[in-house]
Write a structure and sequence with these properties.
homodimer, Chorismate lyase, three-stranded antiparallel sheet, Arc Repressor Mutant, subunit A, DNA-binding, about 240 residues
Chain lengths: ~240, ~240
Amino acid sequence: MLPPSDDRLPMHARLRDALASRIAALEWASGEAIPSEQELAKAYGVSTSTMRKSIEHLVREGLLERKQGVGTFVRRPSFDGSLFRWFNFEDASTGGGRTVPESRLIEREVMDATPEIASGLRLPEGAKVVRVLRLRLWAGKPVICEDLYLPHPLFEPFVTMDEHEIGPLLYPVYERAFGQVVTSVEDELSLGQADVVKARLLEVKTGDPLIVVERTSFGTNGTPIDWRRAYGRSDRFRYRVRLT
Amino acid sequence: MLPPSDDRLPMHARLRDALASRIAALEWASGEAIPSEQELAKAYGVSTSTMRKSIEHLVREGLLERKQGVGTFVRRPSFDGSLFRWFNFEDASTGGGRTVPESRLIEREVMDATPEIASGLRLPEGAKVVRVLRLRLWAGKPVICEDLYLPHPLFEPFVTMDEHEIGPLLYPVYERAFGQVVTSVEDELSLGQADVVKARLLEVKTGDPLIVVERTSFGTNGTPIDWRRAYGRSDRFRYRVRLT
DNA sequence: AAGTGGTCTAGACCACCGA
DNA sequence: CGGTGGTCTAGACCACTTC
């Protein structure tokens, strides 16, 4: 039942992994309730307190949501509103209104990593990567254009996947199709300029200032899963973050 | 012992508040160990598990740090090196080298809050605030210029404090002189332009693009402590953050 | 060896929600 | 009302660090 977990890990950590993979395997739909603490505790042969700790862990990670008196629910990023957990992007032109982001894949290919990409993904120089050029739109208007890189052997199938199968968010795809769960990200923001391609996609003039977000996302074991450089239109894009 | 806490709150929440205020009151120095779980549990007349939960809460908030087999330690931003905990600023021109940021207070005054400032500090409209105009330099070169606002009655003395007494970081001052411990911040980044004053201070041309960081910092009880709008030179300033 | 935090148990009772 | 999660207890044993 818990094959990928290390036996030396504490029970609650193994339970967390077990539940996480059941969630990743879509055993329960988004928003659906999982079995109660007591049922799960009995099923896994642990005390309710231990099961509780695992569930609390998953709640902190954003995979589950608890409602007192009701149950524990799967909370997966999707269209249904609230959360893009690490997508602290906001549409400045609509005052941060909650519009659904759209995603268009412009290019997908396998290429040799430049030194910059290799270092971002902690890959040896000369490794191959999957490159994705993507445009993101809010309310039909282009907001962000991003160059995105994935380690090659593993993510090769991504190049030919059906765009509809991919959808507007990539992290769920990494999880569903490649078994990679993103657990943390590192962002670095600076100022850049639109080159010809980005200017055309974002509908601005070449040379216009853009907000640049360089992001590395990390998996459960701390290895990078993707590295991207996103260019945001300064009039439509704000980046928000809460640090504790 | 726990006067500001609501009696209807769960015990672990009240304990958290009690410990937080003892930490804020500098009962233990930075890096110093607090009493063990069992001592604290006995002192407050609760079970170790309950005390444990309070401590775990404070660890998640970043006020404490636990080391197995050693103890639980106060973890507070300070001058002693490594951390500008929420200062994810980096000097782009020196490749992120560790230089000490310098701070110059340009103006300090009491003024009426604009609606924008009032909303940032969650104050009623028309409240008074302390305004600070500050320039921050890396390696002697101007990098960030910030407008900063503090709630008035409490921070009034800040206006006339000796600049040497204040030093390059404000959060420690809030703590030392006003008993306010910053536990979390919320940042929002966008793009702006240099007005005449900022252009002069930052040594750029009027109208040059600048990175704008709007930051609200929050205290232990979740109320805002300061609100600021920082303007960073795009060639010397990067903003970095890790999200877990 | 002594003391710390980390894990885990097997309960009890409460607060909340929905039928 | 019954079932859910939320709180709290009073322990036991383990893993780790320090002396």
